[in-house]
Amino acid sequence: MKKLLSRRDLSGNRKSSGQALLLIVLVVAAALIVVMSVVSKSVTDVAITSTEEDSLRAFSAAEAGVEEVLLNLVPGGPGVNGTVGNSTGSQTATFIVPPVTQDDAGNSFNYPDPLQSGDTGTIWFASRNNSGAFDCGPGKTCTRTPNLKVCWGTNPSEYSAVEVTVFYDSGSPVHFSNNPNNFDNVKAYTFAADSDSSHTTNNIDKVGPNPCTIGIPPQQSVSYRFQKTFNLSSTLNCGTNNCLIMAKVRLLYNTTTAQNFGLETQGGSTPALPAQGFKVTSAGSSGSTKRQVEVFQGYPEPPSIFDSTLFSLKGLEKK
Question: Alpha-carbon distance 124 to 275, whole Å?
Answer without folding.
Answer: 8
